[in-house]
Write a structure and sequence with these properties.
This is Response regulatory domain-containing protein. By secondary structure, the chain is α/β, with parallel strands linked by helices. Helix content is 34%, strand content 15%.
Length: 143
């Protein structure tokens, strides 16, 4: 006798074929991001340890529904911003930046990238802007 709610027959099936690209230079953090995308959001995840590998995935024409970029591990510099520009502006993929504390910001728009560029340019001064200043601030309800 089967009880209501028992077994996998009563769990909704995840949507098929949703793909995510996770990028982090930190292996442990990348593993955690990928596991969250798989378990919580049911994405098929392509994990890249550096910006160059992620750019190659995007430019190869691979279709992704979402891109998550760990800005802290990539140094928040020009390579990370170039990757975000490619995903947001070139490939038009829903893209999120992840801060040092693990907060997600997005989906990012091109204006947000201008804020990140200014932050990168002014990083040494005390007046620099943070990821919290992006148009689409912390977003913890989406991947």
């Amino acid at each position: 006798m089967d009880l209501p709610g028992a077994g996998s027959a009563y769990l909704p099936a995840p949507p098929p074929g949703l793909r995510a690209l996770a990028v982090s230079a930190g292996a442990v953090r990348l593993s955690s991001i990928a596991a969250n995308l798989r378990e919580r959001w049911h994405y098929e995840v392509t994990a890249c340890i550096d910006q160059a590998a992620a750019m190659a995935e995007l430019r190869a024409g691979n279709k992704f529904e979402v891109v998550l970029v760990d800005m802290h591990s990539l140094g928040c510099g020009a390579p990370a911003i170039e990757l975000l520009e490619c995903a947001v502006g070139g490939m038009h993929v829903e893209t999120y930046a992840i801060s040092e504390s693990g907060h997600r910001f997005g989906p990012l728009v091109m204006e947000d990238l201008d804020v990140l560029k200014k932050h990168n340019d002014n990083e040494a001064s005390n007046g620099s802007k943070s990821l919290e200043a992006t148009q689409n601030g912390p977003c913890n309800s989406s991947p």
